[in-house]
């Protein structure tokens, strides 16, 4: 009985120890401004997206091709953002970059914009339904879409250099403005401002 009692005490003590350890574990959350620059891993992050998109779009909308189009046609060109390939050595969600480009282009006030190919399916389905269910006065016409004049496409690449525990990561983002009718490249821009030095500690916890 004494042996069983001692065993029970040891089991209880171990259980209490586990509970106390779990109770001591804590999590800290700090809310920061959305434009706060934070580099935790050294990889591509939201700050990089913002810097690159603002820089490239600013160069694009001020390119001679845009001003020439406006002067010749007396209207702003209609632009659509196509695909941006991830040619880097890490996983990047380029759809975030595409949306940032769309936002910057629209807010520039120098181009008109149309829905992307991914968005047009839902819009066309809605228009089809309106032909059957909406009143004649409010149903939107078929085959009356605004065609885009130019498409912005590009890619993200990385250049990595490493020696011992120190590495550098340079992100190179390029964009091209294409005339959709003629396939002519009207403008090419790039941003290679994002360069990070990462020093890894040799001490492992």
From TrEMBL:
UniProtKB keywords: Signal
Signal peptide limits: 1-22
Xref: InterPro entries: LpoB (IPR014094)
Keyword Membrane in record: no
A Pfam family hit: LpoB
Protein name per UniProt: Penicillin-binding protein activator LpoB
Species the sequence originates in: Treponema brennaborense (strain DSM 12168 / CIP 105900 / DD5/3)
């Amino acid at each position: 009985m004494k042996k069983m009692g001692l065993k029970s005490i040891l089991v209880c003590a171990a259980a209490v120890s586990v509970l106390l350890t779990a109770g001591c574990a804590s999590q800290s959350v700090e809310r920061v401004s959305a434009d706060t620059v934070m580099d935790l891993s050294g990889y591509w992050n939201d700050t990089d997206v913002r810097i690159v998109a603002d820089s490239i779009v600013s160069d694009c909308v001020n390119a001679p091709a845009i001003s020439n189009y406006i002067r010749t046609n007396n209207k702003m060109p209609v632009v659509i953002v196509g695909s941006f390939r991830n040619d880097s050595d890490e996983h990047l969600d380029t759809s975030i970059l595409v949306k940032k480009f769309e936002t910057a282009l629209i807010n520039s006030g120098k181009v008109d914009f149309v829905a992307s190919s991914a968005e047009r399916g839902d819009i066309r389905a809605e228009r089809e339904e309106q032909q059957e269910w909406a009143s004649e006065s409010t149903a939107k016409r078929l085959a009356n879409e605004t065609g885009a004049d130019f498409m912005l496409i590009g890619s993200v690449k990385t250049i990595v250099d490493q020696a011992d525990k120190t590495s550098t990561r340079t992100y190179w983002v390029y964009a091209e403005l294409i005339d959709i009718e003629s396939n002519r490249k009207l403008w090419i821009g790039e941003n290679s401002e994002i360069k990070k030095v990462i020093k890894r500690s040799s001490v492992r916890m």
